[in-house]
Amino acid sequence: LAKTTQPISMDSYEGQEVNITCSHNNIATNDYITWYQQFPSQGPRFIIQGYKTKVTNEVASLFIPADRKSSTLSLPRVSLSDTAVYYCLVGEWLNAGNNRKLIWGLGTSLAVNP
Amino acid sequence: DTAVSQTPKYLVTQMGNDKSIKCEQNLGHDTMYWYKQDSKKFLKIMFSYNNKELIINETVPNRFSPKSPDKAHLNLHINSLELGDSAVYFCASSQDADSPLHFGNGTRLTVT
Question: How many CA atoms lie within 13 A of A111 on its CB side?
Fold first, then answer.
């Protein structure tokens, strides 16, 4: 059963770059890493997803080393509104690979201070 | 124009009652899900439907029964509510198994 491990909490200040690292030692060879963000009283929101190397979008970057046993979510120049819980996810493929079940951990609670 | 909407937002009820939570998505997605988030913030999948067909059914008590009248709706009915059912229930949808999930804003269920 693939699982992820990430820090329970992190603190940062406005304008800083924040890097949240996640370990997933048993990730399946055909699986990828997905990150979600959750604000209080809201459902999780997709941030970024990747299989290897580096992925970048308008919100974040995701760095995945060659062995894929870990990944790092990078948030450039955070603001107060980035205070949220960040989840790193891998999955289990079910039904002969037609369905993917995400495995959720506790996430990293990021607090951005003024 | 909310993408995934669930009602009600809050639900307070007594033990033993039967209640339903409704979910609708207007994204044209094929797959819908129900998740439960407990007080420790663990998100656990309960059910997944693809084109109205049940795909994932975790070890959820039989008191929980999902119903998908069409591809855009996945309702959750709960019989004989118990104190331990108190949690936030999230509905979500995705285009397929590979695609990101879109979540609703949750239904906070409190059983007294």
Answer: 5
C-beta separation of B94 from B100 below 8 A = yes
Structural domains of chain B, with CATH:
4-111 (2.60.40.10)
Q: What is the pLDDT of residues A29-74, one digit of tens each?
A: 888 999 999 999 899 999 999 999 999 999 999 999 999 999 999 9
Between chains, do A104 and B44 touch, taking CB under 8 Å as contact?
A: yes
Tell me which residue in B100, B105, B106 faces A46 most closely, judged by beta carbons. B100
Tens digits of residue pLDDT in B11-63? 999 999 999 999 999 999 999 999 999 887 888 999 988 887 888 787 788 99
Is some CB atom of chain A closer than 8 A to the CB atom of B44?
yes
Q: Which fold has domain A9-113?
A: Immunoglobulin-like (2.60.40)
Residues in chain B: 112
Radius of gyration of chain A (CA): 14
Provide the token pair at A42. 């809201």
CA distance A109 to chain B (A): 11
Residue A38 half-sphere exposure, CB side, CA atoms within 13 Å? 26
Chain A residues bordering chain B (beta-carbon distance below 8 Å): 34, 36, 41-46, 49, 85, 87, 94-95, 98-102, 104, 106-107
Give the closest of A34, A43, A101 to B104, CB-based.
Answer: A43
| H and E: helices and strands count for chain A | 0, 10
